[in-house]
Write a structure and sequence with these properties.
Distance between the termini: 27 Å
Shape: globular
Radius of gyration: 16 Å
Strand content: 15-25%
Number of helices: 6
Order of helices and strands: EHEHEHEHEHEH
Largest sheet: 6 strands, parallel
Structural class: alpha/beta
Length: about 150
């Protein structure tokens, strides 16, 4: 018996094998990597992945509150209400991850996910803050050590 994959990150490689794995995938995350994922790869995501199975990743540091609301509303108008917030590489901190989560909770009706690195001890406090801000759930990187496992479990 094969178990379903709960979530997987979209890539050009995944697009090529999509017909074989689609029956086993419940959620597909589109990373916010415009320099890495070209237009064709993003179009494949839009064309191949059913809208209810999409989770869009957004680097919130690139947004003000107004642009964040506009982005999430446009995503919701497409029929998708799943968003993953990440800090992003722009450390100007125009909008923090927790502020983006609160904004979704208070001003929009969408499910907003956050990320955590279980391989660093300070992530535990960060996870609690994100959940208190209203995150629907947390997506983690792989657990690379026994210590990382015990931080979360």
């Amino acid at each position: 018996m094969r178990l379903p994959i709960t979530s997987i990150e979209w890539s050009g490689s995944l697009a090529r094998i999509w017909p074989q794995i689609q029956p086993y995938v419940t959620q597909v995350v589109l990373p916010d990597l415009p320099m890495t994922l070209g237009v064709e790869c993003r179009d494949d995501f839009r064309d191949k992945v059913r809208i209810q199975n999409r989770i869009r990743t957004v680097a919130v540091n690139d947004h003000s509150e107004a642009s964040w609301i506009k982005y999430v509303q446009s995503t919701m108008e497409e029929g998708n209400d799943n968003v993953v917030v990440v800090g992003g590489n722009n450390k100007g901190n125009r909008l923090s991850t927790n502020d983006a989560i609160r904004c979704c909770r208070n001003k929009l009706s969408c499910r907003v996910w956050a990320v955590a690195n279980p391989n660093t001890q300070d992530s535990v406090a960060s996870v609690n803050e994100k959940l208190q801000a209203g995150a629907t759930g947390i997506i983690t990187q792989p657990l690379f050590s026994e210590t990382a496992f015990f931080f979360f479990f």
